[in-house]
Amino acid sequence: MVKIIKIGIIGGSGLEDSRILKGAKEVYLTTKFGNPSGGLTTGKINDIEVVVIPRHGKRHTINPTNINYRANIMALKEQGCTHIIATSACGSLKEEVKPGDFIFCDQFIDRTTKRHQTFYDENKVCHIPMAEPFCGKLRDLLGEAASEIGLEYHKKGTVVTIEGPRFSTKAESHMFRQWGADVINMSTVPESVLAREAGICYAVVAMSTDYDVWKEHEDGVNIAMILQVMKQNAENVKKLLLAAIPKINYEECQCREDIKSAVIG
Asked: Considering the domain boundaries, does residue 1 fall inside one?
């Protein structure tokens, strides 16, 4: 029996445009964890059902710490999403990761402190495995699609997720480089953790917008710079999604299995 797939797209800065969807319509809902960041846009890409949610709200009014990550992931789960492709602006911590490049991260380092990181905070405990925090199958498909359409990309990398909303100091930026991290953002954790608890395959399309603040003789990172690069490369993000989504199929995946043995209580 062919299993139906449904793709959730979590849009960061520059990906609130739903015109890539056919038959787009808005859906408003709430979850047991509260309201998601905004209305969900449903539609189809190549006859595959897609649900788009704006991570920071329609007008980017929700800062990274105040995002209701649990409601966002639960809303996609309740809509029947089997896979999530998340987009995220990030700062580069490596010379070779240039502004405009895509990174399909395979690891994260969590530097957040204020966020709900589990659905199981009452009566039960969930020890979800996170040795491989991103879906390898989705990452491979994204890399294949990026190659086909000629995008500059890195097939793996470690992302540091900081609390924000402030940017890093130079000392912090140099420390993250010493740790071996490749890029830095403010949103991947707990989003990826909650997706694993929900049994949903999750991959992040990180787009380098700047060199953070570590690189000498470069302007320090600022929001105007980030939004300018995101605007310039927004079409590439859409092209990547249009090329990658038709490649996705429902395979057996550890992403969906981990939660089955992770809950105690």
From this structure: no
